[in-house]
Amino acid sequence: MKFRSFVIAAALGLATALAGCTAGGPLKVFTSDYGTVRDAGYQLPRIPINQVPRQYHRQIVTYDTKEKPGTIIVDTGAKFLYFVMEGGKAMRYGIGVGREGFEWAGTARVAMKREWPTWTPPAAMIGRQPELAKWRGGMPPGLKNPLGARALYLFNKGGDTGYRLHGTPEWASIGKAMSSGCIRMMNQDVIDLYNRTEIGAKVIVKR
């Protein structure tokens, strides 16, 4: 019996090691942090967070990974973004991801960070949605801007990936696949992530 117990324990340990990044239950949930926020002259409206599934509320979770603290890991399948912290923990945020045909995966770095960024729709997007041509020169910052309150710009060895981690006024899109490839976050969450993230931070996007 002792030998059998040892074999089972060893198998479980191997399975955990092979799993790579694994997340446990919440240690702290920040459901009360989605109220009205005054920021840089703008007033972000309260998010009716009770209408957002609880798993997508910002929370600290146990998280097993070999990546160093400060790394961002995006799980597009589960619709979670993890900011790796010390002590086997991570701050987990609910996200919206690219719709079918716009998914992507890979490793990048945060090359730039912008508060209340200007949004410039790519030429391909204007081709699909001609009504966006009026913003060819850039849509000014504001509460209706698709990039929301903050944006983190992702670059790799080839330069600008064109993808961003950014806020959105469309809080109901969190947990869904609706974007053109960028990772959407509730504005209150992207401000929190922005304040934690350093330029040069590693970003891993997994499908």
Look up the CATH topology: L,D-transpeptidase catalytic domain-like
* Separation of the first and last Cα atoms: 41 Å
Strand arrangement, major sheet: 1-4-7-6-5-14-9-10-11-13
Helix content: 10-25%
The rounded Rg comes to: 19 Å
Shape: globular
Q: CATH superfamily, please? A: L,D-transpeptidase catalytic domain-like
Q: Tell me the count of domains.
A: 1
Strand content: 35-45%
The helix-and-strand class reads alpha+beta
Q: What CATH architecture label applies?
A: Beta Barrel
Count the beta strands: 14
Keywords: Cell shape, Cell wall biogenesis/degradation, Glycosyltransferase, Hydrolase, Peptidoglycan synthesis, Signal, Transferase
Family: Belongs to the YkuD family.
Pathway: Cell wall biogenesis; peptidoglycan biosynthesis
GO molecular function, one term: peptidoglycan L,D-transpeptidase activity
Quickly list its features.
hydrolase; 16% helix; disordered N terminus; L,D-transpeptidase catalytic domain-like; Transpep_catalytic_dom; signal; 3 helices; two-stranded antiparallel sheet; alpha+beta; cell wall biogenesis/degradation; ErfK/YbiS/YcfS/YnhG protein; 207 residues; single chain
Topology readout:
Layout: H1 2-19, E1 22-29, E2 37-39, E3 42-44, E4 59-64, E5 72-75, E6 80-85, E7 89-94, E8 97-98, E9 106-115, H2 123-128, E10 150-156, E11 159-168, E12 177-179, E13 183-186, H3 187-196, E14 202-206
Parallel strand pairs: 5-14, 8-12, 11-13
Antiparallel strand pairs: 1-4, 2-3, 4-7, 5-6, 6-7, 9-10, 9-14, 10-11
Pathway: Cell wall biogenesis; peptidoglycan biosynthesis
Signal peptide: 1-19
Domain L,D-TPase catalytic: 70-206
